[in-house]
């Protein structure tokens, strides 16, 4: 059963212990049984309201489902791990399943993502669509033979430096292959605070950029005091995305990396 813990508001990035080897060991963020270490924020709903049982655990997976929805009604949602991180290596697997929910925007077809360096969802207003964050965008192939890379970067309420300059684009395509159907795909993020960020898909480095910064547009309905344009993002919350397409996640693990600012 989903629960919203009151202890989620740690002030700084989380340091996880892993059998006495915090620097080298991997730690599971998802235990395969429940999402008690995670909490939900869905557009048009208050934090911790898991509307329609959107995020659930079945067969050792976190499933994003809409079988209790009517029209989608821009109810974009995110499932956040309970504490923020700064320097880390994240790995996970995902697959797209089922049909896009009625009323979801066309661009959300076979589309999900992992948000990171995200604002605390308890600072989000009820009708805020996207957290101020960086997104590792996950896309599935449309089965039409056309390339549709995954592991892209999108920037709701943020900017990044790409190829030496601030990117004018909300999303930057990676160099990944296209993955059709419901196959499992392995994604990895290597995040070095506000310095270098690396996206990896099935073992291949597909995108790199740097200097994530609050700015840009796309996010709407936020409290202005949390959108401090020009502020570098060196840490934040990790979240799994729900934007109208059923998707499964599993094997979500993290490894702490040394703080390069020290």
What can you see in these coordinates?
The chain is an all-beta fold. The protein has one domain (30-256): Jelly Rolls (Sandwich), CATH 2.60.120.560. 0% of the residues lie in helices and 37% in strands. The chain contains no helices and 17 strands. The chain has strands at residues 27-28, 38-42, 55-58, 61-64, 77-81, 87-96, 111-118, 134-139, 152-154, 158-162, 165-166, 171-172, 185-192, 196-201, 204-214, 237-242, 247-256. The strands form 2 sheets. Strands 1, 3, 4, 6, 10, 11, 13, 14, 15 and 17 form a 10-stranded antiparallel beta sheet that branches. Strands 2-5-16-7-8-9-12 form a 7-stranded antiparallel beta sheet, with no helix packed on it.
């Amino acid at each position: 059963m989903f629960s919203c813990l009151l202890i989620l508001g740690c002030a700084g990035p989380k340091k996880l212990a892993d059998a006495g080897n915090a620097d080298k060991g991997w730690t599971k963020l998802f235990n395969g049984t429940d999402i008690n270490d995670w909490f939900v924020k869905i557009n048009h709903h208050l934090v911790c309201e898991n509307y329609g049982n959107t995020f659930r655990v079945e067969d050792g997976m976190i499933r994003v489902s809409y079988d209790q929805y009517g029209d989608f009604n821009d109810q974009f949602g995110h499932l956040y791990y309970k504490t923020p991180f700064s320097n880390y290596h994240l790995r996970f697997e995902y697959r797209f399943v089922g049909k896009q929910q009625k009323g979801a925007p066309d661009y959300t077809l076979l589309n999900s993502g992992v948000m990171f360096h995200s604002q605390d969802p308890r600072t989000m207003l009820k009708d805020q669509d996207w957290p101020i964050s960086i997104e590792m965008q996950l896309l599935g192939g449309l089965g039409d033979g056309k390339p549709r890379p995954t592991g892209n970067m999108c920037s709701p309420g943020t900017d990044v430096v790409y190829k030496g300059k601030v990117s004018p684009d909300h999303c930057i395509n990676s160099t990944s292959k296209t993955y059709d159907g419901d196959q499992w795909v392995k994604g990895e993020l290597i995040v070095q605070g506000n310095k270098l960020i690396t996206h990896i898909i099935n073992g291949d480095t597909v995108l790199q950029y740097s200097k994530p910064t609050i700015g840009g547009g796309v996010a709407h309905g936020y409290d202005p005091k949390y959108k401090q344009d020009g502020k570098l993002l060196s840490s934040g919350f990790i979240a799994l995305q729900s934007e109208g397409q059923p998707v499964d996640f599993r094997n979500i693990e993290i490894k702490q990396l040394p703080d390069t600012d020290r």
